[in-house]
Amino acid sequence: MLAPMLPANGPVLAALALPDSYAISNAAELGREGFLAALDGALERGVRLVLFREPGMSDADRAELARRVVARCRPHRARVMVHADAALARAVGAEGVHYPARLLMTLLERPKDLLCAASCHDPRELAQASALEMDFAVLGPVLATQSHPHAATLGWDGLARLLAGSTLPVYAIGGMRPDALAQARGCGAQGVAMLRAVWQS
């Protein structure tokens, strides 16, 4: 007879079910067909968690592209998170919703029928993600990024300090590349979240 799972084991098992990279869509730079081709390549290389985030598109275009992303990911058993829109996630058959910090801080509870993630930048937001029992979070920016080269960064030491004692699986974000994985994990992160480097063959 199996022993009942202790509540404290929940976050550990959740982390074990997550991959070590979180790929963020970038159709805005690659173009739709270019992004889909890059997605196919990334899936072949083992990417299993994708954030669909295309804020510059119309609602109709976002929904159409999101459906194509889900259709490509499903045969690989890769999970798709939709940025900021739980209704769209359900409509296209995605596995989850990813809340930006501005929405995270207004939430009273998380959807129970979806995988849930959140973007965090400081201890207050990380605490909110934990209190809402998000499945995972991203935290950063750790390093300078191409899109925000002058933004304040946490650095590796700052990342490690914020993650000390945290049980929430967290991906480091901001200037991340696949070769940063070991350093991110050494700081206590689940892995790395990438917007550009992950789509390069």
How would you portray this structure in words?
The chain has helices at residues 10-16, 27-30, 32-44, 59-73, 86-92, 101-104, 123-131, 155-163, 181-186; strands spanning 21-24, 49-52, 79-83, 96-99, 115-120, 136-139, 170-173, 191-194. The chain has 201 residues and is α/β, with parallel strands linked by helices. It has one domain: TIM Barrel (Alpha-Beta Barrel). The chain has an 8-stranded parallel barrel with strand order 1-2-3-4-5-6-7-8. β7 (170-173), α9 and β8 (191-194) form a beta-alpha-beta unit. It is globular, with a radius of gyration of 16 Å.
CATH fold assignment: TIM Barrel
Q: H/E order of the elements?
A: HEHHEHEHEHEHEHEHE
CATH architecture: Alpha-Beta Barrel
Strand order of the largest sheet: 1-2-3-4-5-6-7-8
CATH homology group: Aldolase class I
Beta content comes to: 15-25%
Count the domains. Answer: 1
| Number of discrete helical segments | 9
Quick check: average pLDDT? 92
Distance between the termini: 47 Å
Instruction: Pick out the low-confidence regions.
Output: 5-13
CATH class: Alpha Beta
Helix coverage percent of residues?
25-40%
Gyration radius over CA:
16 Å
Which class best fits the helix and strand makeup? alpha/beta
Q: What is the count of β-strands?
A: 8
Q: What general form does the structure show?
A: globular
Biggest β-sheet: count, sense, barrel? 8 strands, parallel, barrel
